[in-house]
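## retry 2 of 3
previous attempt timed out at serialization; input unchanged, resubmitting
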Amino acid sequence: MKNLKMMSVIALAAVVYSSCGSKGEDLPPPVTPPGQAGTVDIRGSISSSQTWTKDKKYRLRGYVYVESGATLTIEAGTQIISNKDSAGVLVVYKGARINAIGKNNDPIVFTSAETTPAPGDLGGLVLVGNATGNRNHQEIEGGVDAAHKAFGGTNDADNSGTLQYVRIEYAGKAVNPGDEVNGLSLYAVGNGTTIDHIQVVNGLDDAYEFFGGTVNCKYLIAYNSADDDFDMDDGYRGKIQFAVSVKAPGFTDDKGTSGDISNNFEVDNTNGKIPYTTTPITHPVLSNFTAIGPNNAAGTSADYGYGMRFRRGSQVVLANSIVIGGQKAGLVVENAETQQAFVDGNGMFYNSLLHSVTQPFFAKDATILTDASLQTLALGTYASKLLASGTDAGLTDPFNAATPNLQPKSGTMALTTAGKFDKSDLNDAFFVKTNYIGAFDGTNDWTQGWTVWGAKYNITKK
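## retry succeeded, writing output
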């Protein structure tokens, strides 16, 4: 990957864009201010099919709902913008579809319309489907109206449309503590939906949250999100391959007195208001992730936590991946039900590399496992490796705050460790069978052209 650049966090600094493309060309300046020619305000409900074209900018004014039976088509290169006064949220509701198909050299971009963008200027993108979940959440979060709170159904093959080559910038809307809109929220979305090549950038809350459902995804990037990068719960049972999580050391959301922390992964079955054993069980099958924590860099927020937090009855399979730089711990397997799943093989950290600043293995609230027995299980039965330093994985420059580079170097562990897909959950046609681990093969850069990174891609908090 060329010039894969980390966000620096400088309060009240101007935002300057810089590309990771092959020529390092500058991205366009911030979008045209609303009210000028070519900007279309969008409010309320979209009840019949329509197409948004790249010759205009579409400004979301508050919550916009694509209603059942309607299809919203968005052309490649189209910008969907929002001002901080309304933090627009696009909700594609049950029975509706979105066809947002960008190109690697002409992505669709959801972003801020402010001259000085900040996380939270945009609310986010919400897809709502008819797939199954365990009803841990009874309603959609984030302040949607009463007519659009329900989600889920009985159709795991439900199709909410297509998202490809889409970038979501400056999203996140906190309505109340624990009641937020994420960059991309997926509520009971079915596996008939196509999602690949998505980047969530500078998000005020989670980058991605999966509330139940069965949707499968490839090529996802979470870059500088303030809370968790990949948050899964409510019985989510999809598959994801080739994904990136990169944390900027100084940027976390306001935790207040909640005791919450920000993680690369946070996966639950339920939140405890209903039993952790409620079915369907959250059981994502994940492969070829590269997840980078803050690695105790100067200015690291005290609210950064774990590389992986698997808890509350979830059964997570994470395989063929690289998780380095976790702050408070690396692999955390929490609560008896989740620990038992690791013992039984329903959950595992498999054929992967792990590094953490402190406590690489943490059997939190230990009843089934101890830290030592979790380490023995991960490094023995599940064939993973513990690294003394994050640089031992062999990535070119993962922790350089100015210009991190996640491509593995020739001859290093990331490239010489072949992917393993011999477990039943991984032996599926969905997964590309790789001869390397992590998100990149050392040669091909699937992020090139449609993503943004940057040494001067600065953040101001609202």
